[in-house]
Amino acid sequence: MSAAMDTESTYSGYSHYSGHSKKAHRQGRDRHKSPRSKDGSRSEKSVTIQTPPAEPLLGNDASRAEEGQDDNWGETTTAITGTSEHSISQEDIARISKDLEDSVGLDCKRYLGLTVAAVLGLLVFLTPIAFILLPQILWRDDLEPCGTVCEGLFISVAFKLLILLIGTWALFFRQPKADLPRVFVFRALLLVLIFLFVFSYWLFYGVRILDSKDTNYQGIVQYAVSLVDALLFIHYLAIVLLELRQLQPTFTVKVVRSTDGESRYYSLGHLSIQRAALVVLENYYRDFTVYNPALLTASKSRAAKHMAGLKVYNVDGPGNNASGQSRAMIAAAARRRDSSHNELYYEEADHERRVRKRRARLVVAVEEAFTHIKRLQAEEQQKAPGEMMDPREAAQAIFPSMARALQKYLRTTRQQQYHSMESILQHLSFCITNNMTPKAFLERYLNPGPTLQYDRDRWFSKQWTLVSEEAVTSGLQDGVVFVLKCLDFSLVVNVKKIPFIKLSEEFIDPKSHKFVLRLQSETSV
Questions:
Q1: HSE (CB half, 13 Å, CA atoms) of 440?
Q2: Tens digits of per-residue pLDDT, 276-288?
Q3: Quick one: average pLDDT of 461-471?
Q4: Segments making up each domain of the chain, as ranges
Q5: Which residues are listed as membrane-spanning (predicted)?
Q6: How far apart are CA 416 and CA 294, in angstroms?
Q7: Backbone φ/ψ region at 261: left (φ over 0), alpha (ψ -120 to 50), beta
């Protein structure tokens, strides 16, 4: 209990990293409003990819850094907690209502598609059984006796239906990963093909068997077996179209994050634009480092300081317009560009020096804390089994010794909004439980990891918008460019086709490597 109180007293200000004023709230809201395009001539199609609901938005993080912070904000900022005041405008209300309508439409579309597929699948599996049972129910006395071959066909139908059921479950009954803006073309074609196929069999069955009351029961069972065989072939076609066709790499896509320019390359097969966008998003959460808007404020603050140091005097009187002042400020800033690179160099060098210094302090503090843990473990082994300390209590006991160093390092590297006190304690207790080293514990904080490493409520975006000049159901082609937009940034995807490679073979004669060494018979003494 005392260890928990020490933890809270040492780390009381850590859970609140930076306080937001009402001005910063309005600036953040205005900055995240989607800009209206002024160019009406460009024909772009904007559709939405929505992941499963009930997840937090990426931009609703209350610890977002302000744009006007200086480099020493980690030491000079005072966190003040209290009642939060929020304002909302009519545009925000309209945007929220539009998002709700879009989400309702996507949910209806998803459930409608699942309902249609489930009804059609149930019809497919019940049709062969109905073909066999209807003659037994309607004109059983007039049927010819079913011989050995007919009874063997019953076993064949049963096992084929079981195989078809397992294959359908493995291929189609999966948890959806995302809501795509348009239907999957191949899946829709397969559903239409299955419907037409089953309808044709029912039409033939009704005309030639039900109306005439065919007495050849073995032929009726053979007709049901042919239906099951055809359904198995359609299932094989579905595997080829839905799974195997996209496995061979055909295109290389370059994904660039618009804010910091981080990029990755991926190889894709024959996919539609919307499915390629889904693959890009899945790889983005795994490969890209977490988006940190606080790292982008350095250049903005530097530009603000340059413009703040300029003074403009209006010598022509108040009649002059503001465009002349703007040109004068731009010209003065251009004359100062020779000295700006020196300021940038020294700012980056000073930042790197402070990061290395605080990193060294953090490493030393964590190593001392883990040494203390080993000493505690040695002491606990001598006690009774009922007095052993669990990993959570051990983490709370050693955390105050490293809390200040970790807090300063995370503030200097602008990572504090992604690591809460509870998450650090959980990670520390996890490392203690698995007997991990201090280096393993610090890996999460010294090296920014992929997006999936952090809590979902700090990075997960509920809705992505796909912007493409081509139809999103069309396949990938060389030179296609589409954009994936979320609240804070966008991913620009450029598609290039893998070139055709021609290899030629060159034969080397094995005898060409042989040589003869001739020695002189007479040698000098």
A1: 12
A2: 999 999 999 888 8
A3: 85
A4: 103-244, 251-292+473-502, 344-447
A5: 111-133, 153-172, 184-204, 224-244
A6: 10
A7: left
